[in-house]
Design brief:
By secondary structure, this protein is an alpha+beta fold. The protein has helices at about 5-10, 20-30, 50-60, 80-90, 95-100, 110-120, 140-150, and strands spanning about 10, 35-40, 45-50, 65-70, 75, 125-130, 135-140.
């Protein structure tokens, strides 16, 4: 019988709120050895995800967008809105400042195969698992899938 997401996911994952101090979230991730945390609002609704990739802005910073001056006008060679978003992430002090707010989710009853395809197609490392009420009930990572693959060989 094919495995489902519920068979392999980590139930009741550690989460943070949008107003969690970023330093505290980073320490929580390091202490628990996880690469990402669901971000839940006061109603326990999923509003984002904080991942290692989001935190890289804090270390790497950003590059000023290239521009040229023409007749006293500034013409950006890169999208200035993207620069503003990157600057906000680099200077952020709260989870909501750096989290990804467009979150791809999966349900517990979906197959592991569907989850693997979704992760591959969307290039994500983890999927929050949500129930019919859109409440987070687990998290599925690439490592979970690889571990399950390894178990199937024994």
């Amino acid at each position: 019988m094919a495995k489902t997401v519920a068979d392999v996911m980590t139930p009741n994952p550690i989460s943070v709120t949008p107003d969690t101090i970023l330093k505290d979230a980073i320490q929580l991730m390091a202490h628990n050895k996880v690469g990402g945390l669901p971000v839940l609002n006061a109603d326990n609704d999923l509003v984002g995800i904080l991942s290692e990739s989001d935190l890289m802005w804090q270390t790497t910073g950003i590059e000023m967008p290239a521009y040229i001056m023409l007749l006293d006008s500034v013409i950006y060679l890169k999208n200035p809105i993207q620069y503003d978003q990157e600057l906000h992430k680099a200077l952020g002090q709260l989870v909501k400042d750096v989290m990804t707010d467009h979150v791809i989710t999966i349900t517990p009853d979906q197959s592991l195969r569907e989850a693997a395809h979704l992760m591959h197609d969307k290039k994500v490392r983890r999927l929050p698992v949500v129930d019919a009420n859109q409440q987070v009930v687990g998290i599925l990572t690439r490592s979970d899938i690889v571990r399950e693959m390894a178990n199937s060989y024994t």
